[in-house]
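testing teh design pipeline on a random one, pls ignore if ur not involved
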């Protein structure tokens, strides 16, 4: 295989080895110095040496070095023995380090130390650190009960809604929290509707250390009582908070695997399109699917006192395990302070929207909040009645998009017969619907079918809606809306029918 340069090197080395063997035989009974002189004379008959270098290691020099090398078998043997311990030490050092790293990576909480070392600066070799208990740190956790109001989410066979069960679970978490240094804030404590963007904005205003959204899964009718178990979702890898969210998700999964009567997915999950309520936050954010409401066993467990208490205690223990791994140095701010500064920096960036040039009138949504023409926010008298996140705000406010709905359905999993009963589309926040592109796919559609909706009346889509069966997916995209200040495009909505 002539094109392989290694073969040419081997061939050259074999040739010089043959020369070594011949030289050894030649000097066994002769004068080594005379033989070396003969080799030089034969190689350089004119006794002139060029001033240039041909960049090759001369085989003549190697032959002369071999001739003059002292051959002491005993010393050679001893030198090899002395080299063995050094080789063993180097080999063991690399092998043991690799084993430790492997064992560390396989533990649920292993990645926590790496990111915390990065935050506190201990990865650079600072040894002046002492572990501190979570009781020395003030931890703020925002917990969201999924869905709510006219968005019921999934439903069990006996009519239990995801919005109601999620609220029960988060209220149980807050009730059982006995650590005065862990502050629990709920996005809702009653049956009210908040859009994912509103929840994300509310969470950011709290400047928390963690965000948790609690949900339950719903399966298509043909998979009822087959799909089971809980899972934890994090944002996709290209989102800022993904790495830290995976750390907390690992802590949650490790805690639930020790004490939970339902199956627990071993790894954090991600969705291709992402989940707005967790990807919009700069701090660690996870979404917990506590189980399947469409599975009788899962639903019965989550509705039981034991199931709800176990779920709540697992979440609280995971919070404690995750935050207890933080370290404080004597020369630097605490990890919580450093972490919050990082959060503040990213929140300030998240609140700036360079594409927006107008000022929002927030009087309808928050009657006591006034936004001046300069873009600053102030609160009228009796501000104590307002949530603290809306007091003394001086940063520009990020605008909340209006929400598109089919009737009262905000998207997600919907019963086929319920969807077919809806007659119109609606837009929140006093916006008027202009146009949207509607795609029909999944079961009942061999190829993706599309139509343009130019009115709020869904009757124009009736032929395509009538073709829908359980498993069909209807997506409203490129939704254009308008109000007195102009038109804009808002987020689409997808409905998975079962």
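output:
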């Amino acid at each position: 295989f002539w094109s392989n340069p290694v073969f040419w090197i081997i061939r050259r080395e074999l040739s010089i080895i043959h020369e070594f063997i011949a030289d050894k035989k030649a000097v066994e009974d002769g004068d080594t110095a005379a033989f070396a002189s003969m080799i030089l004379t034969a190689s350089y008959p004119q006794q002139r040496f060029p001033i240039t270098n041909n960049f090759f290691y001369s085989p003549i020099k190697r032959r002369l070095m071999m001739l003059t090398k002292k051959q002491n078998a005993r010393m050679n043997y001893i030198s090899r023995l002395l080299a063995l311990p050094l080789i063993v030490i180097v080999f063991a050092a690399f092998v043991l380090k690799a084993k430790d790293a492997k064992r560390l990576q396989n533990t649920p909480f292993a990645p926590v130390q790496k990111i915390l070392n990065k935050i506190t600066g201990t990865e650079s070799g600072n040894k002046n650190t002492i572990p501190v208990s979570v009781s020395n740190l003030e931890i703020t956790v925002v917990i969201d009960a999924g869905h709510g109001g006219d968005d019921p989410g999934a439903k069990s066979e006996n009519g239990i809604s995801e919005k109601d069960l999620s609220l029960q679970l988060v209220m149980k978490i807050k009730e059982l929290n006995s650590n005065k240094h862990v502050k629990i804030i709920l996005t809702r404590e009653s049956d009210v509707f908040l859009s994912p963007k509103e929840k994300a904005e509310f969470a950011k205003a709290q400047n928390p250390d963690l965000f948790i959204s609690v949900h339950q899964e719903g399966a298509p009718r043909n998979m009822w009582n087959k799909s089971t178990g809980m899972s934890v979702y994090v944002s996709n890898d290209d989102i800022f908070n993904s790495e830290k969210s995976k750390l907390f998700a690992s802590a949650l999964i490790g805690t639930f695997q020790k004490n939970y009567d339902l199956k627990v997915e071993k790894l954090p999950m991600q969705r291709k399109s992402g989940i707005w309520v967790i990807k919009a936050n700069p701090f660690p954010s996870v979404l917990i699917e506590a189980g399947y409401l469409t599975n009788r066993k899962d639903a019965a467990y989550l509705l039981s006192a034991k199931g709800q208490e176990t779920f709540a205690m697992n979440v609280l223990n995971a919070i404690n395990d995750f935050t207890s791994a933080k370290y404080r140095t004597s020369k630097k701010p605490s990890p919580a302070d450093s972490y919050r500064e990082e959060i503040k920096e990213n929140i300030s960036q998240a609140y700036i929207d360079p594409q927006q040039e107008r000022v929002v009138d927030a009087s309808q949504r928050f009657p006591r909040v006034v936004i001046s023409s300069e873009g600053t926010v102030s609160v009228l008298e009796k501000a104590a009645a307002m949530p603290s996140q809306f007091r003394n705000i001086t940063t520009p406010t990020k605008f909340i998009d209006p929400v598109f709905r089919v009737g009262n359905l905000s998207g997600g999993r919907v019963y086929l017969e319920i969807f077919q009963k809806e007659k119109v589309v609606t837009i929140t926040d006093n916006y008027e619907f202009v146009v949207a592109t509607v795609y029909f796919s999944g079961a009942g559609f061999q190829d993706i079918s599309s139509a343009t909706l130019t009115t709020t009346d869904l009757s124009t889509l009736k032929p395509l809606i009538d073709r829908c069966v359980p498993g069909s997916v209807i997506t409203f995209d490129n939704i254009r809306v308008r109000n007195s200040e102009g038109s804009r495009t808002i987020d689409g909505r997808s409905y998975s029918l079962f």
